[in-house]
UniProtKB/TrEMBL annotation, chains A, B:
The chain crosses the membrane at residues 295-315, 321-348, 369-393, 405-431, 443-466. It is found in: Cell membrane; Membrane. Coiled coil: none annotated. It comes from Pseudogemmatithrix spongiicola. It is a multi-pass membrane protein. Belongs to the SLC41A transporter family. PROSITE patterns: CBS. Keywords: CBS domain, Cell membrane, Magnesium, Membrane, Metal-binding, Transmembrane, Transmembrane helix, Transport. Homodimer. This is Magnesium transporter MgtE. It comes from the Bacteria.
Length: 471, 471
């Protein structure tokens, strides 16, 4: 990530907050005008900074559309708390002024009863629209789309379409307008054109004759990952969502896609770290909830490691016969875990970017087998040398059989690294095959899987090579 | 990540490729018309599928701007190989037709001599433009921006501005046009307005009176992470890049920002996995190069683990006195590594999203201290119970002193998990403090750091509690 070196010590919001607090006390009416030029996101940051009790007053001091825009930029936690605590009429007025997709998201996060109460209080049109959106799963295209977009009938001329666009823009409504959608009488999507293409189109001609007919669309029930893929593959600023009959249902705008990308990535990193993904920013998650996300995996892994202990117990005689063997156990098992962690991170990321499909597993297997052999050989040599050098240098007396011991360590490391690499590379494919999220193949899980095998391999190798000498 | 369940088995490109290959043989001239409606990205996918020797012919069969667009969607590897091998004139013609930012990127990846040769061959205006862009570091705002954007002088009226926009759009040039930039006589950025706002603005008024004057800008030398932050915080579709005097230098479009987000996230995951970040997709990286990215960290960690072996050696007497102690070494050290991995993944992700600033370290320290204590206590109890239960159930005879042993294990696990959690949480802050990338705090690195301490803690605890009984 490389921390941005130009990270500002004080945010714009921090600079603005005092003045705005002043105005709230002295002359709230002036706030709207004073902050007119500010980006809603900055006002939202101010709201996050000031005393929560004052936020409703701040919002009340702004025109409804503006206040709604600020709400859309607020953190989920604060937004939900605000809407749940403020007077239902004020909440309803604000929610009604939000864009349909943000409105649905906001209501989804709220206490159901309060949400229903508010839904009842908002205008019929907005309510119907919102109830329709609420039917879609949050992680689908339908759950991301907004229903306010600009569509024009095929029959319209470029001039008529431009007039429509102008009217909507002038009405100050918040439709997604990066792309103009051309639909037939049944509402079936037949063409798309960017606003610039509409401007460039010759007056008098029909929009249909100027629009693109090869259209990238996504079904409403498509997983949001698919939306991300389409957006990034085709450099889209808006993705049209259609039903089974290609009727245009809504539009997903690129800013929401960016949010999805960052949420999915956060989930992946946290899962890879060995915990359940958090729904909120680290500092906003409650202590107990954070605990709940971390305990289960830790217990599972801990219990898993008990098998390692059991495996060690199985070889207790060897250990007591040659204590020196025990010294290298951490070195050996961790080399397997580390190489496994490398392989897993590569594969789950390549899967997330859809660089790897399920059918690529054989290719990966071969590649990582070679990789594991070379990596294992290198580390094995280092490990063996370590013993030889310590012996010669007199750092540690391994006794006359240090050569065989070195061989044992070297050979084991080779085997463990190879096994670790293959496990790490294949586990995501296996999880995916059985319907789990490949990203659940966390570094700690891979390490734990490899540890048991490492121990068994190590002592079996020892019994094989050291029998008659150390054992 | 939860891979898209609706992942298509055959891509559109796979379906198109055969027909296009046909046309290449029979009637290349018709390809342009036949593929007119296709998205350039799909043609690029076709190019990735077919025999590389045929790609230049495919590109030659398309009009220059179209072929250039296809080039922009090609994978770096194929694009570089193509441009380096095709006739310099053809390469120059294609490169000249690319957008300035893509042109600079393409040249940067090529062999320097070839790149210079091509630069010489492209028109003066494009060459100057490109040379200017090549001066910026690839990971800065300057390295991401395009120099083709729409700016209008303050003095212009809305009608004049619209006419300018129309003219540019009709000329079929590829300027970024989501946002119109208003500049004064010195080229200083004084206002921005979206194309829709320009359409909504009353005719006859000056653009300056309709544009926003609070403008989100980024300096040319800003790190690309800053560009990502601004884009996602403010839901921008284009970020203006300015020099020290706020003169407008270029514009970064959202599609390039999305690429950056995904690249940075890939780097973070790979670093967290314990290897150096790859520059190319997993399957495109050469075996040797992949090896080079993985070996260094593996060696470093392996050497690090030798200290664990040394630590074990220090306690060899205890081990030979009570072999049973050795059995739990993997269990104990891995519990530290796992809890550390959890903490690290949470912190580096929160840092990447700028949810955590450097100054938050104390807050995190306290929070994770509490977390480590609770997690450690829970795992410690499980660990101690395991011994007691095994003893009672007769699975394994720990002897009369199993109670003390259980206490030792439990107390050590508590300590190791606490230490692991704190190490994992603080390491990213430390790395950042000393100027490294916090994302380098990989799961394997944390585990290795914690292992040594775990061993020392374990056996010290044992010497303390088991003296006179097992030891």
């Amino acid at each position: 990530m490389q921390q941005a070196p130009d990270e500002p010590e004080r945010s714009l919001a921090a600079l603005l907050a005092p003045d705005i607090l002043d105005l709230l006390e002295t002359d709230p009416r002036s706030i709207a005008a004073e902050t007119e030029e500010l980006h809603a996101a900055d006002l939202a940051d101010v709201a996050e900074l000031i005393d929560r009790a004052l936020v409703p007053q701040l919002l009340a001091a702004l025109p409804a559309p503006r206040a709604a825009a600020v709400l859309e930029y607020l953190g989920e936690e604060l937004r939900t708390e605000l809407l749940e605590t403020m007077a239902p009429e004020q909440a309803a007025a604000l929610i009604a002024a939000m864009t349909p997709d943000e409105r649905a998201d906001a209501l989804e996060e709220m206490d159901e009863d309060v949400a229903d109460e508010i839904l009842e209080a908002i205008p019929e049109r907005e309510r119907a629209e919102t109830e329709r959106l609420l039917q879609y799963e949050a992680d689908t295209a339908g759950g991301l789309m907004t229903t306010e977009f600009v569509s024009v009938p095929e029959s319209q001329t470029v001039d008529e379409a431009l007039a429509t666009v102008r009217a909507i823009a002038r009405a100050g409504r918040r439709e997604a307008m990066q792309t103009i959608y051309v639909v037939d009488a049944q509402g079936v999507l037949t063409g798309v054109m960017s606003l610039r293409e509409l401007l460039a189109a010759p007056e008098g001609t029909r929009v249909a004759d100027n629009a693109w007919t090869e259209i990238v669309t996504v079904p409403a029930d498509a997983h949001r990952e698919t939306v991300v893929q389409l957006t990034s593959n085709y450099d889209l600023v808006a993705v049209p969502v259609v039903d089974a009959d290609r009727r245009l249902l809504g539009v997903i705008t690129v800013d929401d896609v960016i949010d999805v990308i960052q949420e999915e990535q956060t989930e992946d990193v946290q899962k890879f770290g060995g915990l359940e993904a958090l729904e909120e920013p680290y500092l906003q998650v409650g202590f107990v909830e954070l605990l709940k996300k971390r305990v289960p995996w830790l217990i599972v892994l801990f219990v898993g490691q008990m098998f390692t202990a059991a495996a060690m117990g199985f070889f207790e005689d060897s250990i007591s016969a040659a204590t020196v063997l025990a010294l290298f156990v951490p070195l050996i098992i961790s080399s397997g875990g580390n190489s496994g962690s490398q392989a897993t991170s590569l594969i789950i990321r390549a899967m997330a970017l859809q660089e790897l499909r399920a059918r690529d597993w054989t290719r990966v297997l071969l590649r990582e087998a070679g990789m594991g052999l070379v990596l294992g050989a290198l580390l094995g040599i280092v490990g063996a040398l370590r013993i030889v050098v310590w012996q010669w240098a007199g750092f540690y007396p391994f006794g006359e059989h240090y050569g065989v011991l070195a061989t044992t360590i070297g050979a084991t490391v080779l085997g463990v690294v190879l096994f670790g690499t293959l496990t790490g590379a294949m586990l995501p494919f296996v999880l995916r095959k059985v319907g789990f999220d490949p990203a659940s193949a966390s570094a700690p899980l891979v390490a734990t899987l490899v540890d048991v095998t490492g121990v068994v391999l190590y002592f079996s190798m020892a019994l094989l090579l050291l029998r008659g000498t150390l054992l």
